[in-house]
Structure formats: C-alpha cells, structure tokens
Amino acid sequence: METRKVKETKDGADVKRFRERLKDKKKIVVKIGSSSLQHSETGDLDYTKLDVLVRELCDMRNRGKDVVLVTSGAIAVGKKAVNIKDIKHEEEDNPIAVKQACAAVGQARLMMTYQKIFAEYNQVAAQILMTKNTIVDNLNRYNAHNTFSELFKLGVIPIVNENDTVATYEIEIGDNDTLSAIVAALVDADLLILLSDIDGLYTDDPRQNKNAQFIEVVEELTDELMDMGKASTGSSVGTGGMNTKLIAAKIATSSNIDMIIANSKDIKVLHRILDGKNIGTLFVGNKETYFDLPEFVANMHNN
Ligand SMILES: Nc1ncnc2c1ncn2[C@@H]1O[C@H](COP(=O)(O)OP(=O)(O)O)[C@@H](O)[C@H]1O
Ligand SMILES: N[C@@H](CCC(=O)OP(=O)(O)O)C(=O)O
C-alpha cells in the first residue's frame, strides 16, 4: 500500500478545491507513452487499451471538450513491423537512421490503428507531426496554432507526435512528455494529462526505493522537486522517466495549465479525473508566471 504525501496548500485550504476545478476544464491534451501502448511481454500493441483510450477521448468530445492526443509508439511499432528487437547504438553505423526508418514505418501503422478505432466511435481524427521548428519559427507556429483551432471548430481530435523521420531524433524535442506540454501551451489548453506506467510522482523512484512516498498535489515546482526526477531513467521502452515529466510540468504550470500524471493501467481514470476524483499527481497551474514558449524551445537542450 502506498503512503500518500499531501503537500499543504499555500493558504492552508483543502486540496479538494484543485480537484473540483478539473470538472470545468474545456481544452484537454492527453499524452500516452510507448510503454503504455504495448504488451510488455511481446511488444505488440495492446488493442484493448487503445480501444479504451479512444473511447474515453471520444466521450470527452461528447461532453463538449476540445481534445488532443499526443501519442508515442511510432518507433516501437515500426521496430516490431520490420522485426528489429533492439537498436544498439554501439553496433549500428547510424542508429538514429534506424530509429527514423522504424518511425516512418510505425507512424503510419499507428495512425491506421487509431483511425480505425476512432471511426468505430464515429469520430474524425487528424494527424499533426511536429518538430522543434514548428514552435521556434514564427510563421510555422502561427500556422500550427491556426490548424489546431480549425480542427477544434470542426470537432476533430488531432493526434500529435514528433516528426521523428525528419527531426534529428534525440537532439530536437526528443520526448513526448515535453512535446505534449509544448502542444498544451501552443493550443492554450487548460489541462494536460500524462498517462504513464506509474501512479504519479513519488519522493523517489518507487521501483528502487520502497520508502518513496506518493505526492498527491504539487502547488509549486521547487528546485528540490525538479531534482527528484533528474536521476531517473524510466522503463526500457519509455524515453524520459520522471525527469521529462517534471520538465513538462514546468512548461505546463508556467503557462497556467494544470497537469496530472496518472497510471495508464486503467485508462478509465480519464473520465474520473474530469469528475474531480483524487487520481494521480496534480501539478497546479500558475497564473502569475509568463512563459515564452518559442524562446524556451529554441534553447531547450542548452539549458
Ligand atoms: N520520483 C519518481 N516518481 C515516480 N516514478 C519515478 C521517479 N523517478 C523515476 N521514476 C521512474 O519513471 C518511470 C516512468 O517513466 P517512463 O518509463 O519514461 O514512463 P512512460 O513510458 O509512461 O512515459 C516509472 O516507472 C519509475 O520507475
Ligand atoms: N516519438 C517517439 C516517442 C518518443 C517518446 O517520448 O516516447 P515515450 O517515452 O514512450 O513517451 C515515437 O513515437 O516512437
């Protein structure tokens, strides 16, 4: 049984009020990682999970919300399709090209699967592939923003991933936790939900430290909290571990967007979160900060 650690609110008020306001969120970005989409034993797609994910997203649309899905999985699905088990950097002449080739195969397959399931719920979905330049270049950013706005007006759910085949993978945005927060800031979302292979943020990696305590709410991302993720690596399938989730939290909360990390083992948590239930770790958006998105993305890997 996990020990829950509830951070006191600044004014001592009940943390429940932060959960209550989740009921009113209108524009929601949901991110799912590769490890959550696959069966861990075989690496094949978990269709049951994908089905529940799509159903939850369509139901959010039916509740009148604007919804974006940021999905990983292109490389993992591509690797499976061309029968590559491991991309070992020391054994490949050009490991990045191998990953990019896998992404080219896998992205199309992944979208095919999503399109099929979204169609079952009579929901139109779109694909948006982004690179660092989509945000840094003013005209690109303006066009991307307008495209999202039009898709929302049309009731379409945009499905986003990094354009791994043209991005220099690992030195551009590189992970979808960060990408999802960037997307949330770009579209002026009011909630970002990261579905992970863990319940939320702990005081330390609970897989390494049995005494790690669960943190229910983070009202202020202190340096101490940011350091909590730095040593982490995450699963063998996932890219960023907790570090990239905390970077995402920094981007989101500085843009006044609430963010939640929740466990993807039961994707039905999505509607429960929107019902104000106490699930996952909630990072509270900060109204007082100004966040310069293009500036941040331009300097991302220099920080
Ligand atoms: N402080 C922490 N709190 C929670 N999980 C942590 C922490 N530090 C490291 N981790 C690890 O990060 C993992 C989640 O990252 P990752 O595997 O990249 O997830 P995903 O593929 O879902 O994005 C957890 O399974 C956990 O082992
Ligand atoms: N863009 C890559 C995923 C990168 C990524 O961040 O993966 P993950 O840590 O599983 O969310 C892909 O689609 O394979």
From TrEMBL:
It is found in: Cytoplasm. GO terms for molecular function: ATP binding; glutamate 5-kinase activity. It catalyses: L-glutamate + ATP = L-glutamyl 5-phosphate + ADP. PROSITE patterns: GLUTAMATE_5_KINASE. Signal peptide: none annotated. ATP binds at residues 31, 196-197, 239-245. Keywords: Amino-acid biosynthesis, ATP-binding, Cytoplasm, Kinase, Nucleotide-binding, Proline biosynthesis, Transferase. Its EC number is 2.7.2.11. It holds the Pfam family AA_kinase. The keyword NADP does not apply. GO terms for biological process: L-proline biosynthetic process. One of its GO terms (cellular component) is cytosol. It comes from the Bacteria. Its main location: cytoplasm. Residues 26-263 form the Aspartate/glutamate/uridylate kinase domain. Pathway: Amino-acid biosynthesis; L-proline biosynthesis; L-glutamate 5-semialdehyde from L-glutamate: step 1/2. Substrate binds at residues 72, 164, 176. Belongs to the glutamate 5-kinase family. Catalyzes the transfer of a phosphate group to glutamate to form L-glutamate 5-phosphate. This is Glutamate 5-kinase. It comes from Kineothrix alysoides. The lineage of its organism: Bacteria, Bacillati, Bacillota, Clostridia, Lachnospirales. The gene is proB.
